[in-house]
Structures are given as structure tokens and as C-alpha cells.
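Question: Now follow the chain.
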Amino acid sequence: MNKLLWVGLGGFAGSVLRYLVSGWAQQASGTVSFPWERWPSTCSAARDRNALYLADTRGILHPEARLFLIVGLLGGFTTFSAFGNEP
């Protein structure tokens, strides 16, 4: 049950972060002709995943931190459910 809690909290935080970043990028672009709002979250998630992967392979991440950050936060941040918010 403890593992599910870490993944759920991370997923919640990642989904909210994705919503905020996508909304900011869409307002900044001023257009919906190209889905610019996906670029900041996708690029930063790829960068962050690589950094966390390196930390994980070196044993720096605690198992709960791995669940929260990699599975939950980045999982929620990169999910396709954000497409439901797009016009």
C-alpha cells in the first residue's frame, strides 16, 4: 500500500504540473494551429528522466523516491491525458 501512495502522489503532482505548463505554453504561443504546449513538458521530461535514470543506476535514489519521481511524477507529467484539454 505504501508503494501505491508514492506513485499516486507523484502522479497527482505530475498531472497538475503538466496542466499548468501546457496552459502557460498555449497562452504564450497565442495559437492552436500547432500544439506548442506539448513541447516544454515533453522536452523537460526527457531531460529529467535521463538525469533520474543516471541517479537510479548509481543507487542515489531511495526506492520510494524512485516511485514518486520516475513512476509517479514523470508518468503523470508525460501522460497523454493532457490532450483532452486541448481544443
